[in-house]
Amino acid sequence: GVHYAMEAGRLAAEAAFAALTGKPAEATERLAGYDKAVRSGFVGKDLHKVRNVRGVFARGFFIGGFLASLMTITRGLWTLGRVKLERDDEAPLLMTARADSYPTPDGKLTFGKLASVFASGNQTSEEQPNHIRIEKKVPAEVAMMWERLCPAQVYKAGKLGHDNLVTVEVYPANCIQCGAITAKGGRLTPPEGGSGPEYVLA
User: Fold this and answer.
1) CA separation, residue 79 to residues 66, 75, 84, 180, 194 (Å)
2) What is the pLDDT of residue 201?
């Protein structure tokens, strides 16, 4: 997807340049050409071929895999029409006690969250602005999900308040840019100065 991002950025720059150098009255029209350029270029053509691949997995792994394979083999010519997608924010949260059965980290084969953060070589400054955008007061199940899915102990669920919401504390300096928070309600922005994990070969 990096080549898609680069091409989309190039087309955006061309549209912005055309808008700034043309007549002011035509600026909006010239900017609107960006969407057409993306759709008519290789980015739009490539994505059109796989437009329904994600949606068919709502039918289960095996059926979804079969249908997605057919779409891939036919390069998007075979399709089910417009596949209805489930909104991410409306999908139910399932909480289990599976994590309680995980082995205690031994420091050799299995490692704890903080040891893993240390191994990532994280260079994020403690004083830099928070680059994580989340709603700070959320239902308890959402706060617990954020706390559990994060591999670096960035989120900490507080106590349940009178409004049945939990206040979430955020420790952005621990963030290793895994992107897990974007799965349910969060958004990452680039850290200040390009800081973050500095992964190296052991």
Assistant:
1) 12, 10, 13, 30, 41
2) 63
**Type of residue at 176:** I
Cβ–Cβ < 8 Å for 147, 156: yes
Q: For residue 122, is pLDDT > 80?
A: no
- Asked if 157 and 143 touch (Cβ cutoff 8 Å), the reply is yes
- Return the SS3 of 112: coil
In 60-173 the beta strands, taken as DSSP E runs, fall at 132-133, 137-138, 155-160, 166-170
Amino acid at 82: R
Contact present, 138 and 166 (Cβ < 8 Å): yes
Tens digit of pLDDT for each residue in 130-172? Answer: 888 888 898 888 888 888 888 888 899 988 888 889 999 998 8
What is the reported pLDDT for 173? 84
| Residues in the chain, overall count | 202
DSSP-derived 3-state class of residue 16: helix
